[in-house]
């Protein structure tokens, strides 16, 4: 049984909330100071109970605070670990020189993962939706210049990363949806869930891309996004709406991405 709380110097009996917040402060200092590094296992609930003399619920309350802050992640049947932040540096547009010489692609996620020495893959599904679907607050049909009631083809992807030596990356990193006018791409490789290049498919039907406009919005992750990406309860994501167009400024693709915000760096090159 946990020891009975005693009154402090001010005569006030500390509540369990005060105790677990102090314990959370102690663990937070150990993490920030570097005593525990990203990926390290933190003391078990039994260890902390024995050392501090507090109850199991109090220890778990302290860990819950740190999980919600994004410093700690629970691993089933193993315990609590210091969360590994997303420290990738993503180029939001392609460099005109170097490893991405030539045409400027709309999406360079795979190239950045490879340049960082990580394995990558996508879980892709394909569907047909009404053009009223919203992307960063605006109907995707409006972004594509379509009439009301038009259909769009959408390719939805969960993007996963892992160690270069791994066989199958399993860590969700971001969400990426690509919207196209359905009548334009229905007979292209984009209409099936297999790997397909938007740039190549559009060029093949006479719509080569010549640029894009971007909208960026940081916001709190939704419940569904937290579940898919394994994010803490309160997490910030970066939302990107990229509208790609042809040489005559005809919009033919809207790329909608939701990217983790914990520690990531996103860079643009302006020429």
Helix segment tally: 8
- What integer value in Å does the Rg equal? 24 Å
**Unreliably modeled segments:** 1-14, 95-103
DSSP summary, beta strand count? 12
CATH topology of the largest domain: Chorismate lyase
Q: Label the CATH architecture of the largest domain.
A: 3-Layer(aba) Sandwich
Walk across the major sheet and give the strand order.
4-7-8-11-10-9
- Global geometry: elongated
Q: Which class do the helix and strand fractions yield?
A: alpha+beta
Average of the residue pLDDT scores: 85
CATH superfamily of the largest domain: Chorismate lyase-like
Content of β-strand: 25-35%
What's the CATH class of the largest domain, please? Alpha Beta
Number of domains: 2
N- to C-terminal distance: 67 Å
Largest sheet: number of strands, sense, barrel closure: 6 strands, antiparallel
Give an overview in words.
The chain folds into two domains: about 70 residues, Winged helix-like DNA-binding domain superfamily/Winged helix DNA-binding domain (Arc Repressor Mutant, subunit A); about 180 residues, Chorismate lyase, CATH 3.40.1410.10. It starts with 15 loop residues before the first helix and ends with a strand. The protein has about 270 residues and is an alpha+beta fold. Helix content is about 25%, strand content about 30%. Helix 1 crosses helix 3.
